[in-house]
Automatic annotation (TrEMBL):
InterPro entries: Aldolase_TIM, Alpha-hydoxy_acid_DH_FMN, FMN-dep_DH, FMN_HAD, FMN_hydac_DH_AS. It comes from Kitasatospora saccharophila. This is Alpha-hydroxy acid oxidase. Keywords: Flavoprotein, FMN, Oxidoreductase. The keyword Flavoprotein applies.
Amino acid sequence: MGPLELADFERAARGRLPAELWDFVQGGSGAERTLAANRDAYARHRLRPRTMVDVSATDQGLTLLGSPLSTPVGIAPMAYHRLFHPEGEVATARAAGRAGALMVAGIFASRTLESIAEAATGPLWLQLYWLRHRDALAAVVERAEAAGYRALVLTVDAPRIGRRLRDARNGFAIPAHVRAVNLDPALMAASHRADEGSSGLADHAREQFDPTLTWSDLAWLRERSSLPIVLKGILTAEDARLAAEHGVDAVVVSNHGGRQLDGAPASLDALPEVAAAVPPSLPVLLDGGVRTGTDVALAVALGARAVLIGRPVLWGLAVDGEHGVARVLDLLKAELDDTLALLGRPRLTDLDRTVVDG
């Protein structure tokens, strides 16, 4: 029998991956309180089903920044997919396209931006970190726009990398055969070695991430691309309002999968505050802790236009490449269909705050 829920992929992936790579995927920062909170937040909510509604057909489609999507479930930006399968991000892009889902490729992708775009049949966005080397950042942005990417997602919660103790204890570094191929190797050298008590990723971030990023820097990015700008890592109404004031096109409520500030709120808990602080026309997305179609429905009801999933994609990739990722997305789509029908809200647009108890 094949996987029936995402937890089946989680168990299978754990059996296939080396311990240090499993810790890299699963771990959070500090005592991992925020990592746990991301899942716990969903369990605190109850749904209010309505009956005697025609649910013979359901519709979870939407349009996001001008792109039609078959599902509100997309793929969050993650680095180095080739750690989990030789085809890496190309396999992930194919699976996303099959599902009619958004994919956000990472600036530290292990396949070229162009090869990912060639494999994709659905919309692609590109995630960015604010690098000290502006010429390298500008070059990646230019290539992404030329290759057909449809938005830039700037991660704003990582002026430095959180204290990821599992990686530090393991001395985790990216193996030499897997590279962030869209950047000069000289910029990535630190990620392939680890100092004692640290990790290659933390050492690399200290060298390459620019901690001086402020709201005024968005003008620099906007001058270099006509693509919509999405900010990822928003957790407060204050920052949500500033994002809207500075003309961003969407925000992602995210605590980086519990991998940055330990003690930050669960993404789901921060979502209503952020959604209430921006104009209805400004899309709010969410990542962090989504594991079922019911989780997706809850997030949409609380204000998200769409959700992004991270770790489950890597589980699927490790288990069965493109087909594994496609199955992960198909499971979530099927569960969401069931949830819409059983809630008595057959269309994604029917989900609002009245769906949630309390």
